[in-house]
Every structure is written in C-alpha cells, then in structure tokens.
Write a structure and sequence with these properties.
Blueprint (H helix, E strand, L loop, with lengths): L2 E7 L3 E7 L5 E8 L6 H16 L4 E8 L2 E3 L4 E3 L12 H9 L3 E5 H12 L8 E6 L3 E6 L36 H4 L1 H21 L1 H6 L9 H5 L9 H9 L3 H25 L3 E5 L7 H12 L11 E4 L6 H7 L8
Parallel strand pairs: 1-4, 4-7, 8-10, 10-11
Antiparallel strand pairs: 1-2, 2-3, 5-6, 8-9
Helix pairs in contact: 1-2, 3-11, 5-9, 8-9, 9-10
Length: 334
C-alpha cells in the first residue's frame, strides 16, 4: 500500500505522519521545531524523521503545512508568525533535495481544510469554510470542489478581518481583528479579567454573605481548576467549567460566540458555504462553544426556505493538519 507523508510545522513542534489513501495515520512522529536555530537544521531533522518513518514502505510524496502565507506553487514560506528567520525559506526545494521525494508546501489551515474536506466533517460537500481557532485564527475555503487560494495564495485569512473599527490591538499590528477577540490568548485574558472581578466582588461582600448563608455566591469552577492561579487559565479550563454548567464560563463562551458570529456571518454573506467547520485547539471546548456560535450566526444571517448551512466541529481533531498536508500534492486549487 502506498503512503504519503504529512507534516505540520508549528513554532514549538513538528508533527509527522505516514498517511494511507483512506486518510488514516498509520505511524507518527513528533519532534521539537527549535525554530530559533533556523530553518535548515529543522528541515534536516525533519528529513531524517521522514526517512525513519518511511522505512521500507513505498512513499509517494511529502506534504508540509506551515502557519503563515505560503507560495503554494513554489513552496516558499512568507511571514510565518511563529518561525523567526524562516521568511523566504524555499521549504519545497530544501526538502526535495534532502529526501529525494516530491514535496508540496501549503498554508497550515489550507492543509486542515483539505483534510476535513476529503476525510472529515466536510466529506462529500462542495462548498465549505474551515475555521481554525488557536493562538492564531485562520481559514480555508473549498468552493465548487476546489481549494480557493486567491491571487497571492492568501485567501481565507478570516482572523485578520476587522470586526471592530479601532478595537483591540492584534498581534499583526492592526486593530479590531477577529483574532484579537477569539484567539486563545484573547479568550484567556478575558476570563482572567472576569475572574479577578468576581474575586474582588466576593471579597467585598464576604461579611454580608455570612449573614445570609443560603444566598452565598460561589466562585467560578475555573478558580478551582487552576488552583486560584489566574495566570494559568486557558480555554481548556473554561471549557471544562462550561460543560459542568458553570455560569461564568458559559457567559465567557457566549461572548466568544458573539465575536465569532460576526466573522462567520461575514463568511456566509461572501461565500455562501453549505458547511462551516470549526477546528483548532480552542474548538476542543466542544458543544457549549458550538451552541453559542450556531445560535448567534443564525440570528445574523438571512434564513429562507431551503437554505443549506451547517456549523460543526472538526472531525479529524489534532490529526487534521497531518492528514490534509499528506494530500497537498493532489488538491484541485484555484
């Protein structure tokens, strides 16, 4: 059975998988990126990992997904946000020389989108948008059964569309980007502020509450999950608390759903997808976030008889990037 190698290069780790024709990861490796040492040492270590992973198996190609803008035709990475010193690196040419295999390189979210379209939540759909929520916020577009790249191979950058003029400052330097409101850091920071306010309020009324023990307000479950270390709050703890019915956690997800609904409603107006897939680390919050997003998107878009639109969570989860990258040599792209 022939395999393709899928690679997901992040700022901290590189995930490598041997993927079969059905989109199943047969074998996998993970190695530290060590990005600050530069691209060549990382790609050399990746090459060795690919060789070891392949062994005596027949490998047809290598596909690499990288965060940032990517020239998909020539395999050159541009402006990677978490890979300092990698701008302009000809990843395709270097890896082909090191491995002797044909290599395709693409944006990591485009790779996730291909994975979900071919083997995951979007299988069988002709028009979909895939949104990834993590430290950054990215998007990928399938339109008419084709991956839409755009004139500069930069289509789908939903995280850097503006939802609030002169709003919060984004990591990209602009103001009001969606990423500045629904990225993992933004969600966690909003939670820390609300938790701090809650603790302050409870401390201020502690004496009064002792007089009415039946009406005592308990701190959010998030406090207990991080052992009162507010700096340790991440979307993971917010999701755990929300699934347990915690009021503050659910309020935080409603706020996140509100901001996300602004971005997704714009996608629906522009592209008219039949499916929106939400993936990335933040999506592991699960159904409480999905419910908030669905409700608020449907409140923002025109609903008419027969309209096809579903909003779902990723089916492939953390494997989506590796599985999608393995198929980068075979996309129909426009």
């Amino acid at each position: 059975m022939p395999f393709d190698v899928g690679v997901d290069i992040g700022g901290t780790n590189i995930k490598v998988g041997l993927v079969d024709a059905r989109g199943r990861v047969a074998h996998r490796r993970r190695l530290a990126t060590q990005a600050r040492r530069g691209p060549r040492p990382a790609l050399e270590r990746l090459s060795r990992a690919i060789t070891e992973l392949a062994g005596s198996r027949r490998v047809r190609s290598v596909g690499v997904g990288i965060a940032g803008l990517v020239d998909h035709a020539h395999g050159v990475v541009r402006l990677p946000p978490n890979l300092p010193g990698w701008h302009g690196t000809p990843v395709k040419a270097i890896l082909e020389d090191l491995t002797g295999l044909p290599v395709s390189v693409g944006n990591d979210v485009n790779a996730v989108t291909l994975g979900e379209w071919r083997f995951g939540a979007g299988k069988g759909r002709r028009n979909l948008f895939c949104l990834t929520l993590g430290t950054g916020v990215g998007g990928g577009i399938i339109a008419g059964n084709r991956l839409l790249l755009g004139a500069n191979h930069a289509a789908g950058e939903l995280g850097h569309t503006v939802i609030c003029a002169n709003g919060a400052t984004c990591a990209c330097g602009a103001r009001g980007c969606l990423e500045a409101y629904v990225g993992a850091r933004a969600i966690a920071e909003r939670a820390r502020r609300r938790l701090h306010q809650q603790l302050k309020r409870l401390a201020g009324i502690r004496n009064q509450l002792r007089m009415f023990p039946g009406h005592a307000e308990e701190p959010s479950r998030i406090h207990a999950l991080v052992k009162d270390r507010l700096a340790a709050v991440t979307p993971r703890e917010i999701g755990m608390a929300a699934r347990a019915g915690d009021k503050l956690a659910l309020e935080l997800l409603e706020e996140t759903g509100y901001f996300l609904s602004l971005g997704i409603a714009n996608v629906v107006a522009l592209l008219d997808p039949e499916l929106v897939v939400i993936g990335g680390g933040v999506s592991r919050i699960g159904r409480p976030l999905l419910r908030a997003v669905r409700r608020q998107v449907l409140a923002r878009i025109p609903v008419f008889s027969g309209r096809r639109l579903e909003i779902v969570l990723s089916k492939l989860g953390p494997d989506a990037g590796v599985i999608g990258s393995a198929g980068l040599s075979r996309p129909a792209a426009a």
